[in-house]
């Protein structure tokens, strides 16, 4: 994402097979490198890949449904790609998950078909897993729920425990958040969740938002009706229990492609009016404003743990200056590739 020349980030589905494999190979490389986070700081960290999950866990209560959300995750993606490139020889740019393509049939998508060029398939069927409810509506569950059963990331594990999203409401990081509690990463692919929330008209609604508040309301606001999640939430919940974990969701590599699409939408929205939108902020600095906190400002400093030095929000908001020089190859309502 960084560099003196503008780089282009493309949809995962539009990549050639060799390019897809280069990405998964590089991610697997990070999973086999030693961590940089000291074990006494985060006993659950067992690899360089886990450094990123630990950082996300540690900051969860400061980077969701609030002012820093978009900028913090933009820099997080930058650091992830930098590690892939510098430490594992990745040759490409971080791809994105183009939500409208195959939103009606996740299992058939090149992202989740379980082939050697995918990010792995569904999970093994887990009959004991209950269906997901958002409090108003209970979604029919998918056909997985267990460990990833096929593809490059079959049976991968994470060193951190499963978190319940209700823990967000406590407003404090659980004392065992970074402890070692290994288990496999699980999936339960569910197009019933992705379909209504990832249609082209939802993407269009993001891009034509007239303010950052309106953009964030579409991206991560409350449900519009009982069976319709926001596009950010739907990307997590449609993949299953591993991605539904707001703390440790980076344990599943698809996290990075989902958030690359979020960054794509934000970048596209910013570029439509660089003068007024590049540094537009809205929201406080705590997740769901719990506990109540000040409004985010360009001088607000966010933390990246052992991944990088702290950064002001104003340093990490422009995709085409400072640390960053990238764009997304994206056309609204474009047809999916063969």
Automatic annotation (TrEMBL):
It comes from the Eukaryota. Residues 252-263 form the Tyrosinase copper-binding domain. GO terms for molecular function: metal ion binding; oxidoreductase activity. The keyword S-adenosyl-L-methionine does not apply. Keywords: Metal-binding, Oxidoreductase. This is Tyrosinase central domain protein.
């Amino acid at each position: 994402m960084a560099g003196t020349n503008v780089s282009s980030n493309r949809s995962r589905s539009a990549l050639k097979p060799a390019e897809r494999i280069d990405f998964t190979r590089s991610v697997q490389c990070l999973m086999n490198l030693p961590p940089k986070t000291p074990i006494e700081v985060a006993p659950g960290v067992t690899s360089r890949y886990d450094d990123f999950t630990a950082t996300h866990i540690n900051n969860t209560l400061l980077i969701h449904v609030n002012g820093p959300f978009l900028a913090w995750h933009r820099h997080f993606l930058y650091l992830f790609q930098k590690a892939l490139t510098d430490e594992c020889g990745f040759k490409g740019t971080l791809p994105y998950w183009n939500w409208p393509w195959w939103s009606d049939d996740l299992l058939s998508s090149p992202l989740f078909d379980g082939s050697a060029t995918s990010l792995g398939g569904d999970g093994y069927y887990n009959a004991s897993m209950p269906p997901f409810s958002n409090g108003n509506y209970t979604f029919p569950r998918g056909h997985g729920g267990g460990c990833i059963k096929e593809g490059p990331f079959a049976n991968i594990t994470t060193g951190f425990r499963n978190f319940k999203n209700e823990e967000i409401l406590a407003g404090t990081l659980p004392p065992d958040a970074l402890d070692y509690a290994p288990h496999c990463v699980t999936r339960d692919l569910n197009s019933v969740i992705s379909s209504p929330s990832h249609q082209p008209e939802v993407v269009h609604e993001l891009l034509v938002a007239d303010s950052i508040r309106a953009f964030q309301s579409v991206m991560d606001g409350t449900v519009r009706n009982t069976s319709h999640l926001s596009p950010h939430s739907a990307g997590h919940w449609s993949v299953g229990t591993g991605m539904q974990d707001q703390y440790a969701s980076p344990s599943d590599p698809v996290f990075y492609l989902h958030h690359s699409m979020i960054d794509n939408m934000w970048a596209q929205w910013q570029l439509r009016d660089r003068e007024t939108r590049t540094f537009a902020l809205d929201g406080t600095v705590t997740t769901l404003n719990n506990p109540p906190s000040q409004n985010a400002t360009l001088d607000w400093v966010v933390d990246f743990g052992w991944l990088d030095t702290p950064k002001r929000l104003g340093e990490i908001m422009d995709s085409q200056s400072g640390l960053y020089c990238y764009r997304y190859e994206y056309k609204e309502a474009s047809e999916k590739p063969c």
